[in-house]
User: What shape does this take?
Amino acid sequence: MFVDLLSNLGLSMLLKMRRTLILLLTLLTAAGCGIAEQVAPTTTTTTTTTTTAAPTIPTTADAPAADESPCLAGDRPFAREGIISAFGGANGDAAQLSRLRWASHPGCERVVIELLTADGAPAGAIDPVGVDYNSQAGIIRVALPEAITRSAIADSRFDGELVSGAFVVETRAGSLAVDLHVTPESALALRAFEVDSPSRIVIDVRPDDEGTAVVGASIGTSVVLLSPSSQSTERRVEISGYARGGSGDIDIAVYRTGEDPELVFEATVPAASGRLWQEFATTAPGLPAGVLEVEVAAQRDRSGTPARVTIDTSDRSVPAPPDV
Assistant: This one.
């Protein structure tokens, strides 16, 4: 019986020890889970911060390239005056000018001349084109090929700080040209080229402090006077420009200025037919010395404003030194 009592007591103690061991294991497991729950958020936060910051680096580095103006992009050179570019080739199908587009971008301006075939489809190619720049008068002339005989527009005004407008001109040789007028007092450099699909003429201009400051043309209601410029000092001058088609013959007069203006030269240039601007020119020889005013007006536009420019042909010769 005593032996049975010891046996029961030992069994009871073993059961208590087992329950105690299970309780300890449960507490340790719970504590381990608590530690794991505290570490996990720290790891997740670190990873999230790294992932969020990484994309910022390439975005900042790529920003300047995205801001580059199209009229400054590429490696085509800019020039300040004279012959700027010649391009185009044989078998061009461009036969008419359909549109002039102007756009301003940071640091530059762009003019695009759009072309069509004789059937009115976008042109695929263009015959030879020449572009030159008279930096004093501020005229960028785009000489179009003989195959281009029509234009849907005669002129256009722009809001550019560098390019103020354009005139589609029928030259005395019978071909068409586009004259881009540079804003007076501006100094610029430019480039010109052809782009395809469809074929277009592109002129890019940018400010250039080393360029010649533009004097500019004198523009009246129906007349543009390109020559002479206000800086002319010669006593034999070419008086040239263009008048709006249908405005009548062109009257040219030169006066000696003063209290009693004196007419010293006059001429009438026959007007050409057509809707576009018509080029004219004449020469005034043997003008007197002094301050003179050149005035050009269209006969059918007497109510409008003539184009005027003042020149000084005063004698600038240095007198011979007196005999000693």
